[in-house]
Amino acid sequence: MSTPLFPFDNRYAQLDGLSVPWQPATVPAPRWLRFNHALAEELGLDAARLASDEGLAVLAGNRVPEGAQPVAQAYAGHQFGGFSPQLGDGRALLLGEILDLQGQRRDIAFKGSGRTPFSRGGDGKAAVGPVLREYLISEAMQALGIPTTRTLAAIATGETISRERALPGAILTRVAASHIRVGSFQFFAARRDTERLRVLADHAIERHDRDLLGITERGDRYLALLDAVAARQAKLIALWMSVGFIHGVMNTDNMTISGETIDYGPCAFLEAYDPETVFSSIDSQGRYAFGNQPGIAQWNLARLAEALLPLIDEDSERAVVKATEVLERFPDRFSQHWLNLHRAKLGLRAGGADGADGEADRALANDLLRLMHEHRVDFTLGFRRLSAVLRGRPDELRALWGDDTAALGDWLVRWQARAQASGEPAAEIADHMDATNPVYIPRNHLVENALDAAVEAGDLKPFERLLAIVTDPYTERSADALAALPGTPEQTRGYRTFCGT
After folding, report:
1. Catalytic amino acids?
2. What radius of gyration, in Å, describes the C-alpha atoms of the chain?
3. Burial of 319: CB neighbours in 10 Å, binned 0-12, 13-18, 19+
4. Residue 176 to residue 97: CA distance in whole angstroms
5. Which of 326, 155, 321, 154 is nearest to 224 (CA)?
6. Nearest to residue 272, comparing CAs of 403, 373, 385?
7. Which end of the chain is more exposed for a tag (fewer CB within 10 A), N or C?
8. CB-based contact 12:18 (threshold 8 Å)
9. Cα–Cα distance between 180 and 19 in angstroms, integer?
10. Is residue 108 within 8 Å of 97, Cβ to Cβ?
């Protein structure tokens, strides 16, 4: 007897009332778009077997693997501020859970596997473009050191998907620490189903915060769960801000309690720095603009707190006071992560008790961002080329600013004095900065070019080339010089991304 493709050890599917058993739809003509060998090996799976015809049939949904318990998960969510009491996996299925080589539990899930009871009239399918976008951006985020769901496989299904126009269909296999979202708790809170809310919270603690199991008072344990989720989100959003990432649709159903980035729909990266930047075609009011992301994260956490109130304390007023204390810590947590990350980007070492130095360093970083905004300087290159100044090549930085470099010159004097106050050699500081500031990100025009080639001509070479570049983001290579440059005004003017559903 052959061993199973996936050594499933399922927990979530066995929790009563949290999901609906379901089967993926079969597809007519599956073929590989991309298989993630490195991730398969990280998960402890047989990569060669998964990359075979047997694996293709399984990852296309045509054959349910041994041990799988496919379920569509139930969740609600605030979408652009408006509450939808039932969303759920409309085109996704959780196949099951495995333990990776580090003993960490990971979900294996499909995206684009057909209609479910939560589809709300949709076809449950996905198209090649959005599937490849998620593969590309999630792997880029992984390479940038940002917690993220991953993509194990992208497969063309041989179907035609009807959107604004006919598109080739695809299915994605997503790997996550879990798919539990803020909206998962909202689903049961909205129904006043305290028992299932408790079951979900206990499962979340057992999966993500086992150290909290030692808290004997259950209300305190659930409050600690809220605190742990808030801590992870504060760090995650600070990481997004440090690389210019814009999620684009920070609804509560797109916010994991694991602290992983999930659902790469209308996401994009900043080029010219502007905190009001919005790329999402569906965010007409700018709710999820780049600079709004920390505040939205706190707002989403408040919605999680509301859902958990009946578990935190039987007295609703006491529960609100306790939860509010947790939420009020979020700005300081985020602010400290932001400061630490921007210090690293500027090559600064924290000094002594982090009081006056911290405020001075924060002002230094904010002053640079203000200047970058005023002069429309590319966010990624604006930080990356600072190290060239320490290496005696200031013209590489000044070229980004055009003719008006007087204000930059004043800032550089302040920055160099602070950066070199530690006595560390300038070349070593520059090396540290280059290990923190990427030279390559998924430039929006390059992403679109790669996806267009794949969708319109079936040509995956631009996708593969861009994937190779963005998964090695810190090593500058002369052969990839063009990939480091922002788009032209014609390429960036009016740029919009779409959710792909």
Report:
1. 253
2. 23
3. buried
4. 9
5. 326
6. 373
7. N
8. yes
9. 11
10. yes
CB-based burial label for 396 (10 Å; 0-12, 13-18, 19+): middle
How far, in Å, are 130, 289, 343, 494, 497 from residue 281 at the CA level?
Answer: 14, 12, 33, 10, 6
Mapping DSSP to helix (H, G, I), strand (E, B) and coil, where does residue 32 land? strand
Distance CA 501, CA 499 (A): 6
Stretch 436-455: mean pLDDT, rounded?
97
* Contact between 384 and 344 (Cβ < 8 Å): no
Predicted TM-score (pTM) of this structure: 0.96
Q: How confident is the model at residue 164 (pLDDT cuts 50, 70, 90)?
A: confident
320, with CB counted inside 10 A (0-12, 13-18, 19+), is middle
Helix (H/G/I), strand (E/B), else coil: 479: helix
Q: Which of 237, 208, 222, 228 is nearest to 299 (CA)?
A: 237
Alpha carbon 250 to its chain centroid, in Å, reads 10
Burial track 332-361 (b if 16+ CB lie within 10 A, e otherwise): ebbeebbbbbbbbbbbbbeeeeeeebbeeb
Q: How many helices (H) and strands (E) does the chain have?
A: 19, 12
